[in-house]
Design brief:
Elements: H1 4-17, H2 23-34, H3 40-55, H4 58-75, E1 80-85, E2 91-97, H5 99-108, E3 112-119, E4 127-134, E5 140-148, H6 153-167, E6 174-177, H7 183-190, E7 195-198, H8 200-208, H9 214-225, H10 229-242, H11 244-253, H12 276-284, H13 293-315, H14 324-334, E8 341-345, E9 349-354, E10 357-362, E11 367-368, H15 372-376, H16 381-389, H17 404-410, E12 461-463, E13 495-497
Parallel strand pairs: 3-6, 6-7
Antiparallel strand pairs: 1-2, 2-5, 3-4, 4-5, 8-9, 9-10, 10-11, 12-13
Helix pairs in contact: 1-3, 2-3, 5-17, 6-7, 8-9, 9-10, 10-11
Length: about 525
């Protein structure tokens, strides 16, 4: 008779390369390879035994954390690793910021951070909090991360306090978030001087819940994405007169936060308006989020170490003064200025005309009336047209954040390798109990909660108004199930598939893996 121990031995090597395999996959693997049918419960137990044999048990992993933290500090001087325990010596929080990440952020990155949290899939659950910057070529640059027991205001405040102690009081800083529960209050207490930006894509999803229609959907993106302040104020005034409910919604949800690009700080030089940087990092480490907490932290360290090496090596091959992404952006903008007309003035000032629009450009102050140049640090098409007419090199008027020298400086701080645990584990290991198990009420959820702009498969869809007179419902065909049958969205008819609103900014700030 096949036992769970025998099944675990048979699938161990296979499971090492397929750690996300489901129970039904394990049952099929045993049946196909050995012709033996095992029950669901036996397959589940076999997977637990095999995973413990590969990665160690969760309890052993928490006991490794104190010695592992000492080994990281010894191999990476200048790094900050903080472990918070409870009164009964149970794990609560772990903060990690490598010296290579801190040095790169302080010397080469724009003062911009995207913060986000994602849930872990180990036995004791927990949550991973991250702070991600953007490199000069708009690549992900993780600055710090923390493993916490639960995501709430207390854990966010502890994470921000550790981050503030590590990077210091930066005089100019922008932090972009999804506005998670407890995050806003912690951010105001720890970083009161920082500019708190809201992710416009998440704000838009909340906006869709009001069902104001496609007309106001376009108004949302016009108000939030346009750089020029005066046109935005004019649109808000019109919205207040025509749709006061939508206007009050903007004021209520954007109170105390920066929710439109016309208000972005010019010193940050970043026009990124979505939290894709933090969410992309969470997706990038998806393969190490499943095992134990020790494998999670060490897996992130290995990914950061190899990414810094690869990008440092790539940066040495570039010959242009600016990073490739900005060079491509400038070449693309050069193609759009052929129909522009320039009226020059003294002191490198000019009027740029296109169709019926006129923009004022001041090259000495590096500003344009469209406000794009001031926010991003990269000349807009109007500024490029004026620079070209004055016969000035366009590359000299791009901010230093986008220069190859800054890129190389950003990726010049290494994360040193670490040997296996047999080389640093002490003879008398330091003990650390696992966190207290938290069981949420109700049945555990297996599927991700979809947003208002996603269908059942997770694809982004576009809102269209419903016509209840011609709505094809189950009740019309004699299959009604109460009020749910009259809801178009219950059957996926409240939305039509199409291209959703873009969540990426101009090419100078979009995230790159």
């Amino acid at each position: 008779m096949a036992t769970s121990n025998w099944a675990a031995t048979m699938i161990q090597n296979w499971l090492r390369h397929n750690p996300k395999s489901k129970i039904c996959d394990i049952i099929g693997k045993i049946r196909d390879d050995h012709g033996v049918e095992i029950s669901y419960q036996k397959a589940w137990k076999a997977r637990e035994i095999a995973m413990a044999s590969i990665y160690g048990s969760h309890e052993e992993a928490y006991n490794l954390i104190p010695d592992y933290a000492d080994a990281l500090l010894a191999s990476n001087p200048g790094s900050v690793i903080k472990l918070k325990r409870s009164i009964d010596n149970s794990f609560e929080h772990l903060f990690v910021c490598f010296n290579g990440c801190k040095g790169g952020f302080m010397s080469g990155c724009r003062p911009f951070l995207g913060v986000d949290g994602c849930h872990l899939a180990d036995k004791y659950r927990g949550c991973l909090l991250t702070a991600i910057a953007l490199g000069e070529n708009s690549g992900l640059f993780p600055v710090a991360f923390a493993v916490v027991e639960i995501e709430n205001g207390e854990s966010w405040q502890w994470f921000f306090e550790c981050l503030n102690e590590d990077i210091g009081d930066i005089p100019r800083l922008a932090i972009l978030s999804d506005g998670q529960k407890g995050l806003e209050g912690a951010l105001k207490r720890v970083f009161p001087w920082a500019e708190h930006r809201l992710c416009l894509q998440h704000l838009f999803k909340n906006y869709l819940k009001k069902n104001w229609g496609p007309e106001l959907e376009g108004a949302f993106w016009n108000i939030t994405k346009i750089f020029a302040p005066i046109p935005v104020e004019r649109m808000l005034k019109e919205l207040e007169q025509n749709k006061p409910d939508a206007y009050n919604w903007f004021l209520r949800n954007g109170e105390g936060k920066c929710w439109r690009r016309s208000l972005y700080n010019h010193e940050i030089k970043c026009n990124h308006f979505t939290n894709n940087c933090a969410e992309s990092f969470n997706s990038k480490i998806l393969d190490v989020r499943h095992p134990t907490v020790y494998n999670l932290v060490d897996g992130i360290r290995q990914k950061l170490m190899t990414d810094i090496f690869k990008r440092h090596k790539i940066g040495l091959t570039w010959t242009d003064p600016l990073v490739p992404r900005v060079m491509r952006h400038l070449k693309k903008e050069m193609e759009t200025i052929r129909s522009y007309r320039v009226k020059k003035s003294l002191r490198l000032r000019a009027e740029v005309m296109h169709e019926e629009r006129i923009w004022a450009v001041d090259i000495e102050t590096r500003s344009c009336s469209c406000n794009d140049w001031q926010v991003s640090g990269v000349p807009c098409s109007h500024a490029i047209s004026a620079l070209y007419d004055f016969r000035l090199p366009i590359e000299d008027y791009v901010h230093d954040f986008y220069r190859v020298d800054m890129y190389r400086s950003c990726y010049s701080y290494p994360i040193n390798p670490l040997p296996d645990k047999g080389s640093w584990l002490s003879l008398v290991p330091k003990t650390l109990n696992p966190p207290h198990e938290r069981k949420a009420p109700g049945r555990p959820k297996k599927k991700c909660q979809r947003g208002t702009d996603e269908d059942r498969t997770g694809r982004t869809v576009q809102w269209v108004p419903l016509n209840r007179a011609i709505l094809d419902t189950g009740r019309a065909r004699g299959r009604g199930r109460g009020h749910d049958s009259m809801r178009g969205r219950a059957r996926g008819q409240g939305y039509s598939e199409g291209r959703g609103a873009s969540s990426e900014g101009p090419s100078t700030s979009s995230t790159q893996h």
